[in-house]
Amino acid sequence: MKIEKLTENLSLTRTVDAGTEQQRKAVQEIIREVKETGDKALRIYTEQFDKVQLQNFRVSEEEFFQAFERIEQKYVSIIEEAAANIASFHSKQRRNSWMSTDENGSVLGQKITPLDSVGVYVPGGTAAYPSSVLMNVLPAKVAGVERIVMVSPPGENGELSDAVLIAAKVAGVSEIYKVGGAQGVAALAYGTETIQPVDKIVGPGNIYVALAKREVFGDVDIDMIAGPSEIAVLADEAAIPSEVAADLLSQAEHDALACSILVTDSMELAEGVSQEVERQLENLPRKNIAEQSIRNYGRIIVADSMVEAIKAINQLAPEHLEIITKDPMSLLGKIRHAGAIFLGRYSSEPVGDYFAGPNHVLPTNGTARFSSPLNVDDFQKKSSIIMYSEEAFNQNREKIAAFARLEGLEAHARAIEARP
């Protein structure tokens, strides 16, 4: 893993796959077909892309029962405990409606209302991630969303992953359909004979899913178009090279485009981590992916001081940030931009991926400068409440009418003056 001195041009941003014109047109055609022919289109595309013929898309109670029968109980217990941690964390994010009354009797406030329905897209095949189910479903559940619908592409046996089904059941998904790809997104957005539409779509997917989410945005809300995963580790001489290397590789194995960066003020640590990454790569099951990531996007940056290292981290605005220093808590207040911050050697990034409770759906590609992790607010909407008293109205009527005329909106002014 290459070592370099800190420069001003440090960046995590990579060219995000925006899809080809051919892919965009294919997605538009799929969405049009689903809107026009509903379930018929879903059956055609499921056979074409997933190589399976389905008459019924909805997962039955029997399929849930079989999933629980097949999987080891220890995994069910782990999923249940992780779900409890995630729900507990997100319950602290809940907001309440509020109203305040001024001395003149007017009432102002904000009404918090959960969305009526949310669709969760879950990748299938080899990318079957029960943790993704928990992280996308539970904030919506905590927010008070009553109808949570999940879609996921079936395997060639016409079934979904046992772990995914169990996570969905534990999290409280209302309906699950064996439909994937752009057609699954279209079904969530516009509905079919079988699947009723939702108000918002969340969850990761391939380029066709991402393009479909872009296409339906505006008719429904979406969460984000996430880029490849990334981690930055801020460390000093107190860090242990083998542990830092393992954490860097934990992101590199996600994707050949994943980005892993160490920023340190210790050349000794930098050299130790570089050697450890090479050693640990050799016996990594996903070596080919991780090696591409490390060679193309992995970097070890040596700064002259921890002050300069922190500036670099804020410039990077990483999705995941680990702080492994003698006193990590003392540096927390200096961090302005990061999706999730992991403090100390025992807060390895996978702790947050699976179990601790905070959401692992995080802003990527430098967007932590202005974006936040998926949270309860994403599944609620806010309505303003305005109830002016007669006294407040009379105190301010002339100013309001004058403001309206300043903007050239005479009917606005007259609406105020129409009241005696």
With strands numbered from the N-terminus, the spatial order across the biggest sheet is 1-11-10-9-12-13
Q: Helix-strand pattern, N to C?
A: EHHHHEEEHEHEHEHEEHEHHEHEHEHEHH
Major sheet summary line: 6 strands, parallel
The number of E-state strands comes to 14
Distance between the termini: 77 Å
Integer-rounded radius of gyration? 25 Å
Outline: globular
The quaternary state of the protein chains shown equals single chain
Classify the beta-strand content into a percent band: 15-25%
Mean residue pLDDT: 95
Summing up helix and strand content along with how strands pair, one would put the structural category as alpha/beta
Total number of helices: 16
| Low-pLDDT segments | none
- Helix fraction, binned, reads 40-55%
Describe how the helices and strands are arranged.
Layout: E1 3-5, H1 21-37, H2 39-50, H3 61-70, H4 73-91, E2 98-101, E3 107-114, E4 117-121, H5 130-143, E5 147-151, H6 162-171, E6 175-177, H7 181-190, E7 200-202, H8 207-216, E8 221-222, E9 230-235, H9 241-252, E10 259-264, H10 267-281, H11 287-297, E11 299-302, H12 306-316, E12 320-324, H13 329-332, E13 340-343, H14 349-354, E14 380-387, H15 390-406, H16 410-417
Parallel strand pairs: 1-11, 4-5, 4-7, 5-6, 7-8, 9-10, 9-12, 10-11, 12-13
Antiparallel strand pairs: 2-3, 3-14
Helix pairs in contact: 1-2, 1-7, 1-8, 2-7, 3-6, 4-5, 4-6, 5-6, 7-8, 9-10, 15-16
